[in-house]
Amino acid sequence: METKIVKIDKEDFKKEDLLGASQILKDGGVVAFPTETVYGLGANGLDEMAVKKIYKAKGRPSDNPLILHIGEVDQLDSLVEEIPDIAFRCIDKFWPGPLTIILKRSHKIPDIITAGLDSVAIRMPEEPIARELINLASLPIAAPSANLSGRPSPTSGAHVIEDMIGKIDVIIDGGDTGIGLESTVLDLSGDRPMILRPGGVSYEELKKIIPHVIEDRANLESKEIPKSPGQKYRHYAPKAEMIVFQGETEDIVKTINERIGKYIYEGKKIGVMATDETQDRYSKGIIKTLGTRKDKRSIATKLFKVLREFDELNVDIILSEGVELDDIGKAIMNRMMKASGGNIVNC
Ligand code: AMP
Ligand code: MG
What we know:
It is built from ten helices and 16 strands. By secondary structure, the protein is an alpha/beta fold. An eleven-stranded mixed sheet has the order 1-8-2-3-7-4-6-5-9-10-11, sandwiched between helices. A five-stranded parallel sheet has the order 14-13-15-12-16, sandwiched between helices. Helix 1 packs across helix 5 (about 130-135). The chain is globular. Magnesium ion (MG) binds near residues 144, 145 and 153.
């Protein structure tokens, strides 16, 4: 299949630039587009055949449900059975934005979207390209991340091209995404509001709106079985073995340096994911910084990009510094845990 690449300037584009892509969505095709979290792989969420193409292009397991993306809040009514009060409060505060809300599904939604569950995940993205595209199509758009299943999520048009060229109809290249990690998934379909996946909206922010919100412990503990189907897979995974080191920064640096010595002796090619504050403390291996520890949002932005860079460099082992669990730190550690297959060392 020939994939059309459409370059769009996020800061300066016209509705007409997206007309071709929106028509392809209406016609049952697949279009990759930027959101403020990561790039999405979009298709008409009410068309089973179109959604099947997403699963095929990604190689995604069919028991992993998809998020429906909407452009305006009034699209929500027909997609869910009811909208509880706390959902309205979350929508007021966080939409458009990186919060996915799970509610009881309406009969309108095909089983392929929900993998047979009685609930559905919905988000209204903030990125203007995404919203304009969805509004032009005037459809709920199913859109998982636009990477091959298992690979790090794409945070630039180049990443999407790497994974999806020849597999889908259109790639809208709108440059780098802002947040760099996926949305927070909040389940409001059960008795107790629960965060199923940490993401762009933090636990602390949600707690201000829903004081009794709880977190699925499996988000950060590799031994627990997650409640969200997608969270059980090894995800975001680089080709190399990856080890994450967590604890006090000084202890992390010391332990990683010991490991570097060991692996170099074994003849391995090593990549180190450091931070601005620590990158000069490692003498061997390929050192890349994720950003400053003072601004975890900058680390979130670069994580998937650096994982892909290490793939290209064909390192054997990635030694990664962990971060504290406040703010977006939880989402970062969750992705690192998944990327490493739970290979975490407490220093
Ligand atoms: P992705 O589309 O790759 O960002 O992943 C979507 C995430 O939302 C996965 O972890 C899914 O398992 C989760 N998800 C989607 N729909 C539901 C649902 N109805 N119940 C629980 N988790 C869901
Ligand atoms: Mg994904």
